Amino acid sequence: MAVHNRVAATDQARPEQDSGTRSFSSRVVCVATGFAALIATSALLHALFPPAIPAGVAAKLKFFTEHKNEFDTLFVGTSAIYYSVSPEIFDRTTRESGLPTRSFNFGIDAMHPPENFYVLEQILKTKPRNLKWVFLETADVQTKLHQELGTERAVYWHDWPRTALTLRKALDPRGGAKWYIKISRLWLARRDLATHLALFAKRFANVGRFDFLSSHRDRADTAESELGPKRDGYRLAGDAMSAENAASFQKRLAQEITGARPKQIDPYANEAYRNYARQIRQIGAEPFFVVTPLIFQSPISFRESPPGPLLAFNDGKTYPMLFDPKVRIDDAHLTREGAEEFTRLLAQEFVRRARRP
Amino acid sequence: MLFVEFRFFWFFLAVFAVYWSLRRNDSRKIWLLICSYIFYAAWNWKFVFLLMASSALDYVVGLMMTRSKTRGARRGWLIVSLCGNLGTLAFFKYCNFFISSAAALLEWLGLPASVHTLNIIIPVGVSFYTFHSMSYTIDVYRGKMRAVSSLLDVACFIGFFPQMVAGPIVRASAFLPQLRSLRKFSDVDVRGALVLFLTGFIKKACIADAVAPFADRYFAAPWNFTAASAWVGVLFYAIQIYCDFSGYTDMAIACARLLGYELPINFRFPYFAQNISDFWHRWHISLSSWLRDYLYIPLGGNRGPRWFTYRNIMITMLLGGLWHGGAWTFVIWGGLHGTALVLHREWVRLIEQRPQAHAIMRWLAWPLTVYWVCVAWIFFRAVDLPHALPALRSFVFFQSAGTEDLGTWMLWLVAVFAIVHWLNSLGWFSEWWRRAPTPAFAAGYGCAAAVVLLFVPPHYTPFIYFQF
Questions:
Q1: How far apart are CA A1 and CA A23, in angstroms?
Q2: Which chain B residues contact residue A36 at CB under 8 A?
Q3: In angstroms, rounded to a whole number, what is the distance separating the alpha carbons of residues A40 and A32?
């Protein structure tokens, strides 16, 4: 542990310097050798050991892998899916409508694109035989990280495809910018670039893969709670907002409805959703894209033709029952009553669209 | 910016490459100073001005003391320096402590006072760099060294980034002469420095940061945990603080060494100390020797009757405790160590003529010392006394109403760490890597670094001593 004591003890009689380090070129060769060994060993370890997936995601992934052939419907998205889509109610509604399903909620707190793409890829890798429907929450690629989620949560999905997607978005948020515009954005986007590149480096260098003490601390507690009381991946978020917040919510909602303008999702998310729609179809399932009842009221659409049916619920005029403050916790989340209502509406809309030739 | 962050790696690479490519000593020092201020500004740029002011003050005081003809004038300039440095410390670190303590005292006297504490941000490393600069002016005053005519040298000494924020506390007399001569790369023990850096990195990132969450969890609510968990919490904290601080010091010494400068040793296997006096010759050596030379000896040291020596020990240790921060827990920590030092002196005096007692103490000395150090750590770590006392009760008397278990099985890890530490003290890992050819060493180092990263928690935890 305290090698320095020994190292320091040798200061008095420091050994002669190796002749190999005397010339500049040999020093460069040595530094290059060190880096090459670091990269090669990291790559080898990277191939040998599975990624350190954080406890919450790992719990759902493990459960789904063990029961993958029991489910034919899957919901993937953020907490807006996690706390708002009850598989029990969804399955009951679809059964009553004559299109029975067996669903699992793979919503995870703050799992925005591109993290959701990484998780979806892990799900598809398990090759679930009976999967027929995959509901993907639809949103833009996020370049900002949720600091409160911690670094472990940010590291695991930073493989090169996801990192590259984020970097491209950071440098050219709307897509199609000329190269000199991208270069000029290097300075503006420096923090995002540095953060995502550092996370990619950490993932590549396997940082934290054997952090077994932290794993021991977190995993046991998280696994059960993450799956929810019915072990279908769904959990309740909480109680309705206060009267004070309700007034503010209604005011902002009215402003949103007035100012709503059609909005296309960003080109990077657009491209990624198309790619994953293709992959979902390759395993014999059908993708559905969902916009949850967010306060953000602008009608969202894909660029060009949508890669699958888009079910949008961020419309206070069409779905006023989902925007009643009594069923809302905040701008994105619903109470038990709200979640049940939303799930029923989602199931009915799904059945209607699924039956459409 | 922490030594264990990726960005520090790129920062140091740039510092290192440019530093050694410069030919003139002054250019190198200017480069070092710029980099040191950038390093400090990465935390909070506003406090760079405080650092500059501290350097300027002590530079001027040093020159003025040299020019002063009378001892009184020299003493006056020393007082200016002490007021400046200790005033900075008092304001940033102790202002709120003094205000809240005074309010508590008034309330206790039945004179409740409505006082407001100030919202003060403590500059990182303020305790360290004020001690660096005070060592300069005090040594000039004592005539142990001549005042330096170059402001650049003084600023470099006080702001040198490897040691600026958490030590080791470097003496001006040891560091300033190194700045005067052009450092040669051929004199640098690159291998030793690299191994030392990796060792420090392992201590900090793999060990201290891994056990920290357990100690944090325990000390956040010690009353919730079983007595066995108290042992896990306290022993893990003992491991954490050693690995955190000595890991930082190793990396600081290694970085300085790669730039051609030598910093003093700060730790010498402190948990193998055979008595509390021995512990202080092994733990935070640069602080204990600073306190000895600039506080204990000027107070009279051990020149005088026994009670006089003991008084000096207690004053030194209480102030040493307070140096760590404005809180009564630190004062108690210092008091516990001071008491142990006094008791040890008495004990040594008592058993001098009793050889059988020596035999008994040979077996008891080490566990007793470690136990006492751990008891003192409880006060050092706890946020306040209401948090410290339940932890103390659990650790010392095995009394706790709590039922939560921190993972008693992890106590075996303490044994593993102890064995590795012991093997290291025997020199098992010390020299064999010097025998390998340079390319093999480079390749081995790269492989070792890759393996080490596997065990590093993904999040960064600030160094404990940054807060001091």
A1: 33
A2: 443, 446
A3: 12
Q: What is the mean pLDDT of residues A199-221?
A: 72
> Could you list the mean pLDDT of each consecutive 10-residue stretch along chain B, which spans 468 residues?
82 92 92 93 85 90 88 89 87 76 77 66 79 89 88 92 83 89 88 92 90 90 90 93 93 94 91 92 92 90 87 93 86 94 88 76 86 95 90 88 80 85 82 85 93 84 74
Q: Which of B121, B154, B182 is the last residue of a domain?
A: B182
Tell me how many domains chain B contains: 2
Q: List the domain range (segments joined by +) for residue B279.
A: 190-454
Tell me: do B175 and B203 sit in the same domain. Answer: no
Q: In this structure, what is the dihedral angle of CA atoms B7, B10, B11, B14, given to the nearest 10 degrees?
A: -170
Strands (E), B237-373: none
Question: What superfamily would CATH give domain A55-150+211-355?
Answer: SGNH hydrolase (3.40.50.1110)
Taking an 8 Å cut-off on Cβ atoms, the answer to whether B438 and A21 are in contact is yes
Same domain, B206 and B140: no
Q: Does residue B441 sit in the same domain as residue B413?
A: yes
| Neighboring chain B residues of A203 at a CB cutoff of 8 Å | none
Widest Cα–Cα separation across chain A:
86
Please check the confidence at residue A5 and state whether its pLDDT lies above 50: no
Which of these ranges, A297-301, A345-349, B106-110, has the smallest mean pLDDT? B106-110
Q: Do B450 and A45 touch (CB under 8 A)?
A: yes
Contact A2 B443 (CB under 8 A): no
Residue A16 has pLDDT above 50, yes or no: no
pLDDT given at position A3: 43
Does the pLDDT of residue A4 top 70, yes or no?
A: no
**Any B CB within 8 A of A26 CB:** yes
- Between CA A163 and CA A206 the distance in angstroms is 16
Give me the catalytic one of B116, B132, B284, B324: B324
| pTM to 2 decimal places | 0.82
> B324 catalytic, yes or no?
yes
Nearest to B407 among A38, A205, A216 (CB): A216
Q: Is A37–B438 a contact, with Cβ atoms under 8 angstroms apart?
A: no
Does A100 contact B at CB distance below 8 Å? no
**Structure-block tokens of residue B360:** 């008994």
Cα–Cα distance list, A352 to A218, A311, A319 (Å): 42, 11, 17
* Minimal CA separation from A25 to chain B, in Å: 12
Q: Looking at beta carbons, which residues of chain B come within 8 Å of A190?
A: none
Asked if B213's CB is within 8 angstroms of A18's CB, the reply is: no
